[in-house]
Amino acid sequence: MNMALQDKITRCWDERSAVYDNQYGHGLKSEEEKIAWQETLKESVGAGSLRILDVGTGTGFLALLLAELGHRCSGVDLSQEMLQQAQKKARQAGLKIDFRSGDAENLPFKDSSFDVVINRHLLWTLPRPEAALREWVRALKPGGRLIIIDGRWAAPDISTKVKRLAGNCLIALAERRNPWKWKGHYGKEIQKQLPFMGGAGPDKIVPLLEAAGLTDVSIQPLTRVMEAQKAAMPLRYRLVYAHRRYLVTGRKPE
Ligand SMILES: C[S@@+](CC[C@H](N)C(=O)[O-])C[C@H]1O[C@@H](n2cnc3c(N)ncnc32)[C@H](O)[C@@H]1O
Fold it and tell me: Using CA positions, which residue lies closest to atom 1 of ligand 1?
């Protein structure tokens, strides 16, 4: 990735690291949400002690859940500050996870290292998603599985937009804070270099997986997780988080 752009993106996440987990949809907010994530991950990742890479791990959300399920996890991220939060959480939970600094487009791992490569909410912030996907497939073992968890926050339908506006206005009134604080955090210069800015639905993700040569591509709505998340939210947040999220997977041919 172009180094100036990479530095700017890294700085944004360094700044956000201390409060990242507070936001709904980022850190876990209830035991029910944790169970919903673990059940969803068990179904798509499988059992055993697999070698799993969480790309753009941030504060280690997926790596921690997967390590708790017994897998051997690594996590890569550009932001040292996000990684420090992840390391702190792993220490507190008594989990051993290999967190490293690195770029999703140029992973610090050999070919065919992992049974599963996974990520959540990463595609939107990549300037070259196709190149990143080729890199993730390179790091997968033959027969290994790529799992992408994503959604479209900048939802195209009017009803979702109206709900979000109403929810954000209620947050501003009830909590006396600016709910749009992080919206323009990247700034227009960075945003225009990101083809999936606003999130990616299956219509965008599936062709990427197929172009990278993956087979058995399938889409699963994150229904159970979304229901558990909503149950822990006040109404104003349920209005804001009305967009759909998905898990898309594909297999690297043997
Ligand atoms: C929205 S956060 C998602 C964090 C985590 N995956 C989660 O689900 O909570 C995006 C993360 O991707 C990281 N990131 C952005 N571009 C990256 C890149 N090219 N390589 C590695 N990490 C990157 C950021 O530093 C940030 O931690």
Answer: 121
Residue 57 CA: which ligand 1 atom is closest? 6
**What percentage of the chain carries pLDDT values higher than 70?**
98
Expressed in angstroms and rounded, the spacing between residue 154 Cα and the centre of ligand 1 is 18
Please check whether residue 99 is in contact with residue 78, taking contact to mean a CB–CB distance below 8 angstroms: no
| Two tokens, residue 143 | 């027969």
| Residue 52 CB partners (closer than 8 Å, separation 6+) | 45, 63, 66, 71, 72, 73, 74, 114, 115, 116, 117, 118
Centroid of ligand 1 to alpha carbon of 19 (angstroms) = 14
Inside any domain, residue 238: no
**Shortest-distance Cα residue to atom 10 of ligand 1:** 122
User: Domain containing 100: what range?
Assistant: 3-153+199-232+244-251
246 in ligand 1 pocket by Cβ < 6 Å? no
Q: Whose CA is nearest to atom 13 of ligand 1?
A: 56
Determine whether the shortest distance from the Cβ of 121 to ligand 1 is under 6 A: yes
Domain count, the chain: 1
> Is pTM beyond 0.85 here?
yes
Does any domain span residue 91? yes
Whether residue 24 lies inside any domain: the answer is: yes
Alpha helices in 56-126, H assignment, sequence order: 61-68, 80-93
Residue 180 lies in a domain: no
Q: Indicate which atom in ligand 1 lies nearest the CA of residue 62.
A: 8
What is d(CA 7, CA 36) in angstroms, rounded to the nearest whole number? 35
Residues 6+ apart with CB under 8 A from 157: none
pLDDT digit string, tens, across residues 82-122 = 999 999 999 999 999 999 999 999 999 999 999 999 999 99
CATH number at residue 23: 3.40.50.150
